[in-house]
Amino acid sequence: MTMSWLTVASSFLVVAALLGAAAVDGVIVDGLKVGFYNKTCPAAEEAVRDVVTSEIGMDRTIAAGLIRIFFHDCFITGCDASILLDETPSGDVPEKESSANGFTLHGLRTIDVAKSTVESMCPRIVSCADILAFAARDAAVAAGIPFYDVSAGRRDGSHSNMDDLPGNMPTPSHHVPRMSELFAKRGLSQEDLVVLSGAHSIGGAHCFMFSNRLYGFSQNADVDPALDPAFAAQLRQVCPPRREGDDPQQAPKVSFDGRTAEKLDNAYYSEVLAGRGLLTSDDSLIKDPETKPTVDLFAGDDALWQQKFAAAMQKLGAVDVLVGEKQGQIRRQCRLVNKQSRQSTPSRPRRKRPRFGRFVPGSGFHGFF
Ligand code: HEM
Ligand SMILES: *[C@@H]1O[C@H](CO)[C@@H](O)[C@H](O)[C@H]1NC(C)=O
User: Fold this and answer.
1) Taking the model in full, what pTM does it have?
2) What is the DSSP code string of 212-240?
3) Which of 59, 115, 331, 334 holds its CA 20 to 30 A away from the CA of 83?
């Protein structure tokens, strides 16, 4: 009946070896529960939903922002709300200030409102990481994805360092092999990459994220030949060549999916197939023979993609989460780690922070990392 400890230990080693071979350093953690706050804060999920729907009612673009914040949080040190921290006890410059985040994060205020609403109902019970996971779901539902359950019980981390992004966060110039590698490091599959990239069916990208495809693309072509010429011409109208001293915050933002810009649907895949994917990373999904068939599949089946998207969001939401009272904390404020008790040692001197990550204004996305 009982497996010997040795059997258990050795199968553990086999698994560890397999994981080691795949270079996984992030895992999908078991232990989250649907209805985690049933007893301790039964109205929490509904309260978050009310805040998110009312904020999206005032500004449709927030839906995309919330989904992206969730992805960026989960990808770096797991879904622990580390992306929400304005500062850290260690003095590290937080993830928020990385060039992949900074002013391009959209919807942070909605999370603050949701947190203070929930906090006034049940103080110190509901983690910021769970609020973000609920909010991302509610945003997806507001944008047209059928309702899906979100397991909860995540605890909030206290580490956040923008230096964790390079080598972990995909960038707009990445191609499939590199992105698949980064997804695999988080315990996510190549299919998850294709499925979740469909989030680029809502929201948009600032011109500097793709302007290298519009001007001086290569020695032989000013414009990326993969772009539909009419689309490229349109983009060049909206995104003028960058000039010295341009303020990136003033850069125009272009919808990923001009056809159904506010609807989370499979139109993204048809747009990419038609040469109207904005980012090199989007286009790479059809250039790569390993992912192209999946793009074709989703382009032809919205219901299938929507169902896969919900499932992949659930999986993303379990990446490297902190669970149980011994791990992490329930932050009082999502932007700050709770103050230590009285006799804590004074915090280390803070690193001088750049105004906005290492972003070099006017350098295009080459300023990334
Ligand atoms: C895998 C490679 C990915 C790359 C290289 C990438 C890159 C980007 C870039 C450069 C932007 C534009 C940001 C801006 O200019 O403000 C963006 C926006 C966005 N991304 Fe991704 N992304 C990836 C995957 C994902 C995934 C997996 C999700 C969610 C599940 C996601 C959700 C979004 C959303 C919703 C927006 C629009 C945000 C807004 O309009 O505020 N992305 N992404
Ligand atoms: C919370 O309640 C829902 C609905 O009644 C139920 O499906 C779920 O299993 C419950 N979860 C927990 C952890 O009690």
Assistant:
1) 0.90
2) GGTSS-SSS-SS-TTS-HHHHHHHHHHSP
3) 59
